[in-house]
Design a protein that fits this description.
single chain, mainly alpha, 6 helices, 0% strand
């Protein structure tokens, strides 16, 4: 059973992740309301709103992935009495427990960060591909977070629901 402080940390992480999921969804819907292509990205410098949407999507995608994979997953494993280990070991455990469909896909999604953040300066095709792939991986982030929250909730390892909402 997690300590009171661990339960509070879990509740905090869940509240943050729920907000991040909502914000990522909103940004994703706006950014992908029309196809994201290299041609569309050519206007990036002349369209500050589009540039801000792109930055917001990349940032929110990365932040949600960090909070779910690097914070909530290890905290969930500890709450369940499982030893936490290196990221890959934790992801493999999550896959075995049925919380994550594919640790390999999670790592592929993780690699998109550099492509979305650094390489767009040089190659708009790489950026467009990375953004579109990240958009396809977004449901995986949402589902993984939900699976972890359910695992904790089903085992009554969270404080009262008003602290998690």
């Amino acid at each position: 059973m997690p300590t009171f402080d661990e339960q509070q940390r879990l509740a905090f992480l869940i509240r943050v992740i729920k907000k991040e999921r909502t914000q990522l969804e909103i940004t994703q819907q706006r950014l992908f309301s029309e196809a994201v292509t290299a041609k569309r990205l050519q206007d990036l410098e002349r369209d500050p709103a589009f540039s801000e949407q792109l930055d917001a999507f990349a940032s929110r995608f990365a932040r949600l992935q960090d909070n779910v994979g690097d914070k909530l997953l290890p905290a969930t494993l500890l709450a369940l009495g499982e030893p936490k280990g290196p990221v890959l070991d934790n992801l493999n455990k999550a896959e075995r427990f049925g919380w994550l469909d594919s640790a390999e896909n999670w790592l592929l999604a993780r690699q998109l960060r550099n492509k979305m953040v650094h390489e767009y300066i040089e190659d708009l095709t790489i950026l467009a591909d990375a953004l579109n792939t990240a958009s396809q991986f977004s449901p995986m982030l949402h589902q993984f977070a939900e699976q972890l929250i359910q695992a904790l909730s089903q085992r009554n390892l969270l404080p009262a629901s008003k602290e998690v909402s």
